[in-house]
From TrEMBL:
Sorted UniProt keywords: DNA recombination, DNA-binding
Protein known as: Site-specific integrase
Annotated SUPFAM superfamilies: DNA breaking-rejoining enzymes
Matches recorded under InterPro entries: DNA_brk_join_enz, Integrase-like_cat_sf, Integrase_catalytic, Integrase_recombinase_N, Tyrosine_recombinase_XerCD
Origin species: Streptomyces olivochromogenes
Length: 454
């Protein structure tokens, strides 16, 4: 750990009978330091450099006797090397999905931090090499394909030093790069926010590693490109009648479809996320013969991809999204879903670990598999015009149907947010358009109230 001190004292330059006769002497804290020079001019120039740093309020390294700015310069490494060090630091404590996000952010900003673009490979080749190899620690010990190695070698040679990020215009250029997609179009607001946050964190790590004296992002006034607020498009959300037809179309398919109808039902009736349904166990379900039941959602099985997980499996076992690891979200479920789940358990039993949903071979439900079933259900349940639109394009849209149904039914937003696993702020922002259905009723109530005092 570097020890810093603001106590710096200089002695007069003295001349001695040595090969380098002019000696500069100074103290940092209680440690003495000296440097010798061939000429008096060189000694005075060095003295002026150190005095300027001291007068500017820079801390000095007690061991080397140098101001922080010079220590940083001596320790400087390329941005490419620092980005890999950052990935290495974050890797072990990050789930697979986070690892992918970290790699994506570093792969986005790194091409903006090069000395020049002469000889830079194709943009897609660059993204593949950086995202899939340079910033995927699981592949660091693998044999790198020749074409990928060529791209990475180019970045090793062309990468700017990390200290170059002390220049504000370079930081601005990097922020601009992270706001764009591969095709040059502006990325989604959420994507920009995530990448900027990771970039900020990587610069904090550079400060900790004493490669930068401060995080340059704190000095930059930058606003992400304006875009429409993130909301659910009502055109994507099936109404209850359409959702019922879609579930029926799932049931009428092959045995694989019948095995999945309750899976989709959990999204429609309980607003569960697909990754939450995949890990749902029978022990977490109250399924009475009559009346409402209860799901206790306590884990997710997100698909990160086998290249990003420690186990080599495509799915990971994690707690609820944005919640403490042992958090549980209770969700009351209507008799329709209770009956559907009871039928499912009778027909298919459970997996050895108690999971409700499994493939015919007992494995985890895969997004590719249930995606194919859903695509067929859309083609059978929807009209040609509906099928050609964005209506129910994804199974996730069933979750939107559940939340919008609760809201339009007059359920308090706080309770809807609790059941859906949102904060109230996110709920109101994302589902803002579904609250407008109550305007007429609200206006009538206001008019009635005002009429009492007319």
């Amino acid at each position: 750990m570097t020890e810093w001190s603001y106590t710096v004292k200089f002695w007069a330059i003295r001349k001695r009978d040595y090969r380098k006769p002019y000696q500069l002497r100074w103290f940092v804290g209680t440690s003495s330091h000296s440097e010798s020079f061939l000429t008096s001019g060189l000694a005075k120039s060095r003295e002026a450099q150190l005095i300027t740093a001291a007068n500017a309020g820079e801390p000095f390294d007690v061991e080397s006797g140098l101001p922080k700015s010079l220590v940083v310069k001596e320790r400087d490494i390329s941005w490419y090397e620092h980005a890999r060090n950052y990935i290495d630091m974050k890797w072990d404590d990050s789930p697979g999905s986070t690892r992918r996000t970290l790699a994506e952010a570093m792969a986005t900003v790194t091409p903006a931090l090069v000395k020049d673009t002469k000889g830079m490979p194709d943009v897609r080749a660059v993204r593949t090499a950086l995202y899939s190899w340079a910033f995927n620690k699981n592949r660091w010990e693998d044999d790198i394909p020749a074409d990928v190695a060529k791209v990475l070698d180019w970045f090793e040679r062309k990468s700017l030093p990390t200290s170059a990020l002390s220049e504000r215009m370079l930081v601005r250029a990097t922020l601009k790069a992270l706001s764009k997609k591969l095709d040059g179009k502006t990325a989604a607001p959420g994507t920009i926010r995530r990448k900027r946050a990771i970039f900020h964190n990587s610069l904090e790590y550079a400060v900790d590693a004493e490669l930068l004296t401060e995080n340059p992002l704190t000095r930059i006034k930058w606003k992400a490109p304006e875009q429409v607020e993130e909301e659910v498009d009502p055109a994507c959300v099936p109404n209850p009648g359409q959702a019922s037809k879609l579930l029926a179309a799932v049931r009428e398919q092959s045995p694989r479809g019948r095995r999945l109808v309750a899976f989709f039902g959990c999204m429609y009736y309980a607003a569960a996320r697909p990754a939450e349904v995949i890990g749902l166990r029978l022990s977490d379900c109250d399924l009475p013969r009559r009346g409402w039941g209860m799901l206790r959602i306590r884990e997710t099985r997100p698909r990160s991809g086998s290249a990003w997980t420690d186990s080599g499996e495509p799915h990971e076992k994690r707690g609820l999204k944005h919640r403490p690891r042992k958090a549980v979200r209770p969700v009351p479920i209507p008799p329709e879903l209770v009956a559907l789940l009871r039928w499912h358990v009778t027909a298919y039993g459970t997996a050895p670990d108690g999971r409700l949903f499994q493939t015919q071979r007992g494995g985890l439900i895969q997004d590719t598999g249930y995606g194919e079933v859903w695509a067929v259900a859309r083609s059978r349940a929807l009209t040609p015009a509906e099928y050609g639109s964005t209506l129910a394009k994804r199974p996730y849209d069933l979750r939107h149907t559940a939340v919008s149904t609760w809201l339009s039914s007059g359920v308090e937003p706080q309770l809807v947010a609790k059941r859906a696993g949102h904060s109230v702020a996110v709920l109101l922002r994302v589902y803002a358009k579904f609250l407008s259905d109550g305007d007429d009723a609200a206006n009538a109530k206001i008019s009635e109230r005002l009429g009492r005092h007319a």
